[in-house]
Design brief:
This protein is an alpha/beta fold. It has 13 helices and 15 strands. It binds adenosine-5'-triphosphate (ATP) and magnesium ion. The site of magnesium ion has 4 residues, from helix 1.
Length: about 400
């Protein structure tokens, strides 16, 4: 897997960029606010179809695009995947309201769905704020799981997107029923909800089983990495915390598990049918409660993941250093799982992370870099990298959205 060329038009502060990657290692240096993160965001967008730092698509359209007759933004990459050459392309064009943008995806010039592109170019992005994975809210952790799994497994991506659509419709129905103050026992309510429950449980179970099983694989590798980082003093564990009991534990055990009081649960795989049955049962049992809330209270949209060291929740008890190590171990494990599952290792995109790390963690990250087919790294300071690294890498300077090759030695 290799990204040979990246072209940007009106992508954030890049008016126009055409950059060729000729060596496995690329090092981009620049002062603050010059476009280093933006460049990695563009590459990561080709892998995931989403702009990691934007809540709305229009945020990534370059301000200078307003000078065009029709403002637009374009990211395209020439990539080589398993011997095939592909051109991946994302184009944003304004909608009639003039505020929002339409995202068009093309592969070799032909229009495709976002889902068809995700997972072709695989990448793992390391950011200084990765620690949020450990000390942030559940949304961060769900996002992390989704970004990783969507690249690994197309059927996951399909199930997740169907689930989200169904959830929206089911929530609208619940809200309407709440406004009408209908009785949960009314036959019409029963029929309407039963229809959506079935669909929700089917797609939701697929998402939940996949997350659970992925976490088992991830835990095995991440805990190995974390043991190395802590000279075997710390045992890292990952606990999947769904919003209802998917069926591996008794109800009593599951309650203890949710509260963090059961640390040694069996590490068994979950199957979809099992989760689906448990999900349907939960929805049937809690129908009155959901009607009162006017929202779907159970499912993968309420999932969380607990990260523990020596049986203690790192979000609550971890030191900053421990949290940082755990986030790094998780990301490195993701790289490994991606390589194992997909057959080819992902690109590594490292955004100014070296300066945050101590010598040991740096060494661990650099070992992963050695194994990756392509690594693109940004830094504000050349000195964060050894002369040897700088010799092996192709070096560029980023300045106000312009990228120039330099000799860094
Ligand atoms: N849509 C946009 N159009 C034009 N410029 C933008 C747009 N979005 C962000 N920018 C600008 O891009 C500049 C570069 O941002 P970026 O985050 O890539 O910097 P950086 O080189 O990573 O800096 P740092 O070292 O501080 O992380 C910022 O000054 C920001 O204001
Ligand atoms: Mg940056």
């Amino acid at each position: 897997m290799f990204l040979h060329r990246l072209r940007l038009t009106h992508f954030r502060n890049y008016r126009q960029l055409d950059l060729a990657f000729e060596t496995p290692w690329t090092l981009l240096q620049g002062s603050n606010a010059q476009g280093k993160t933006n460049l990695l965001e563009a590459i990561f967008m080709l892998a995931t179809s989403k702009a990691i730092h934007a809540t709305q698509e229009r945020e990534i359209v370059g301000w200078q695009a307003q000078e065009e007759p029709i403002p637009y933004s374009r990211v395209s990459g020439d990539v080589q995947i398993d011997g095939r050459h592909l051109e991946l392309e994302i184009i944003l064009t304004p909608r009639e309201d003039g505020l929002n943008y339409t995202k068009q995806i093309k592969i070799n010039g032909a229009p495709k769905r976002a889902m068809d592109m995700v997972g072709l170019l695989r990448a793992v992005l390391f950011l200084p704020e990765d620690i949020k994975l450990v000390d942030g809210g559940p949304t961060e952790r769900r996002r992390y799981l989704d970004i990783a799994l969507c690249q690994i497994d197309r059927s996951y991506c399909q199930a997740l997107s169907s689930f989200q659509r169904i959830l929206l419709q089911r929530n609208n129905l619940l809200k309407r029923l709440r406004e009408q103050e209908v009785s949960p026992a009314a036959p019409a309510v029963d029929a309407q909800l039963a229809f959506w429950d079935e669909k929700l449980a089917q797609q939701g179970a697929r998402v939940m089983a996949r997350r659970h099983n992925f976490l088992l694989e991830l835990e095995a590798i991440a805990s190995e990495r974390h043991a190395m980082l802590s000279s075997d003093r710390e045992r890292l564990a990952l606990h999947y915390l769904p919003s209802f009991n998917p069926g591996l534990l008794s109800e009593q055990e599951f309650t203890l598990w949710r509260q963090g009081l059961l640390t040694e649960a069996p590490r068994r795989r979950l199957d979809e049918e099992q989760v689906q049955a448990a999900y349907l049962q939960k929805l049937a049992m809690r129908r009155a409660r959901e009607l009162t809330a006017g929202a779907t209270l159970y499912g993968p949209h309420r999932d969380d993941l607990r990260i523990l060291v020596n049986d203690r929740d790192l979000r609550i008890y971890g030191s900053r250093g421990q949290q940082r190590s755990a986030a790094l171990s998780l990301k490195l494990a993701e790289v490994r799982v991606m390589a194992q599952v997909g057959g080819s290792a992902p690109l590594l995109l490292l955004d100014d992370v070296m300066s945050e790390l101590d010598a040991e963690r740096r060494a661990m990250l650099l070992a992963a870099v050695e194994d990756a087919p392509q690594v693109i790294v940004t830094t504000t300071d050349w000195e964060d990298f050894t002369p040897e690294f700088r010799r092996r890498a192709r070096c560029f300077r980023v300045c106000s959205g312009i990228v120039e090759a330099v000799n860094s030695e």
